[in-house]
Amino acid sequence: MSDAAAVPAAAPAPPAPPESIPWLGLAAVLLGTFISTLNGRLSTFGLADIRGAVHAGFDEGAWITTAQTCAQMLVAPFAVWIGGMFGPRRALIDSALAFAIISLIEPFSTNLPMLLALQFAGGLASGFFVPLTLSFILRNTPPKYWAYGVAIYALNLELSLNISASLEGWYVDHLTWRWIFWQNVPLALGMVGCLHWGVTRTAPLPARPPADVFGLIFGGLGLALIYAGLDQGNRLDWLNSGLVSALLLSGGVLVAGFIVHELRTAHPGVNLRVAAAPPLPRLLVLISFLRLTILSTAFLIPQYLGAVRGYRALEVGQTLIWIAAPQLVFCPLAALMLRRTDPRLVSSIGFIFISLACLMVSRTLTPIWNSDQFLPSQLLQAVGQSFALSGILFFAVLHLRPEDALTFGGAVQTARLMGGELGVAFVATFTRMRSQTASNLIGLHVQTGDPVVVQRLGAYAAATARAGDPGSGPARAGALLGGVVRSTAATQGVIDAFVAISACTALALMLVVAHKPAPLGPASHRPLFSPREADPA
């Protein structure tokens, strides 16, 4: 027998994993964060229809949207750990499939407890989307695509916030409220397809560190309790409510215990040193500030159009859609600028535009405005929001190592949700208090017997008296004058809120300008490209 024959045949090499398609991966990023934000906003706009379907009152129904977002906060630390252990691809595909199934059966809920349980389960599934899709940008795409991925992430946040009213109104008017949930099914399945073909399969870690069960539970539960307290605070009058006080206090204690434990344990579930390393804390604060400014369109404009002008959800959506549409143009423009200029410049331009847009509204808003008057300022704000969020996120990316992407994604999810909830709490409470103050001040000048008031009531009575029943005029005149006072006070509250948001935006701008320039690339690949380098693609 020859020597050649004695040599055993070499084992066939394992097949190489299929090439991933970066743009499909970026589509998964878009769909994941789009679904996460859109579902919460649709539930908010369609809350009255959902409450009616399960025979829930106002107070009980207020927990429908809270249940979903609390679950997203609860699962955020677990999402970071599971993504690190098993890879983001597997975790995202499984969670997207679970979310599609939950969304399919949720409209068949027969009572409020069943609906709340399904909302909570859907929040647990969708809570994986934002932390893990952000990490995909850094770990599974070439560096030249990172700016585009970040811009797409910013695009979908703006888009989902501002088209939700249109979608909800169209579903209710032309189909059924059940499509508020059913629209998630094709979106989640599309996300699964993009992940399957667009993200490379990664093997789980061969030597998995022990799970930090204590830290993950304390961190997630603490954040969820704080969020619930903030979400219900305006309805229950904040610290005057024992429930709100208990939620905030217990959540704060759990989060404090979580931080101490993670800093001392040998195998932390979440690497807090990454989130605490400069400049990420300041950037996370900026993301929270930006979520507050976004509410000037996502909350204040619907508040004004609904309370003062009596618009329905579909009519409100026709206004907000013109804020969302320009994002499709300015998103790629923001990405190109991020590739060739300092991200601080891009985000500074964005914050300046947002501040100017808020001041434009605050200086000219009156109770007779309709949706068309908002268009110039909101087109300016649409540009600003795209640039500001894209610039902040990309500035943070340039300070990261790709292996820290999961922790960064979890931190962004926490800042996004908590900053948004703080913004909602602040804007809603501030608007309510300023409206009450304005109503009291206006009421001081509406006195019985005052010649101007008598003249106004007489004009109202003459205009509203029924034919053959002149005695109906005075009663209608009083109700009409009361409505004028309420709408004027509500308008003043919205104006004051726009001024406050503009001031917050100016503060955020100072934080951006005062920061040192970003490095030329992430820490472990520096320099990957020059900020002014032309895109080789």
From TrEMBL:
Which parts of the sequence belong to the Major facilitator superfamily (MFS) profile domain? 25-520
Gene3D superfamilies per the record? MFS general substrate transporter like domains
What is a single cellular component term in the Gene Ontology annotation?
A: membrane
Show the stretches that span the lipid bilayer.
20-38, 115-138, 145-167, 179-199, 211-230, 242-263, 283-305, 320-338, 345-362, 382-400, 494-514
The Gene Ontology terms for molecular function here are: transmembrane transporter activity
Keywords tagged on the record:
Membrane, Transmembrane, Transmembrane helix, Transport
Q: Which PROSITE patterns match?
A: MFS (PS50850)
Cited InterPro entries: MFS, MFS_dom, MFS_trans_sf
Tell me the membrane topology, using the record's own terms. Answer: Multi-pass membrane protein
Question: What is one Pfam family matched by this protein?
Answer: MFS_1
Q: Which domain of life is it from?
A: Bacteria
Query: What does the UniProt entry say about where the protein is found?
Result: Membrane
Which positions carry the signal peptide feature in this UniProt record? none
Q: Does the keyword Transmembrane helix apply?
A: yes
Primary location: membrane
Instruction: Name it.
Output: MFS transporter
Originating organism: Phenylobacterium montanum
